[in-house]
Amino acid sequence: MSNGPERATAGRTRPNAWEYITYCYGRRLPDSMRDWVRQDLAGKGAVRRMMTRMFIPAFLVLAPFWLIDTTLYVKFSMTMPILVWAVLFSHALNKVWRRHMLRMHNLDPNLVDEIRRQKTAHIDRAYIAKYGPRPADAQSNSSAV
Question: Where are the transmembrane segments (predicted)?
């Protein structure tokens, strides 16, 4: 009689624990949660949240190495190089992953830069006041909206 998981999530605007975990690693949430997804991927703290989400699996994979009976130096040398690279890659690919997730939820991928645009809006206004707006043909080569 049930229409599946879509019916259970029809009116909710926030994911439950299982939906949140699967969303963190690539699953699409229902359209009723688009505002929450927008805030999660483009709002304040989005970079920190995404880096934490990528750190957790790397940590869980490397944690058993700390159970090996050996010196602290060997434990560090087995796990830290991999963990450092995991953190570096999660930072480097952060914006790419957030754009992908926004696209997957039918949201504008340029929302990723929304906070930066808000912070630098005064610089843009000062530029326009001094030099005037950019010509329309110059915009075609820009990533700006």
Answer: 54-74, 80-97
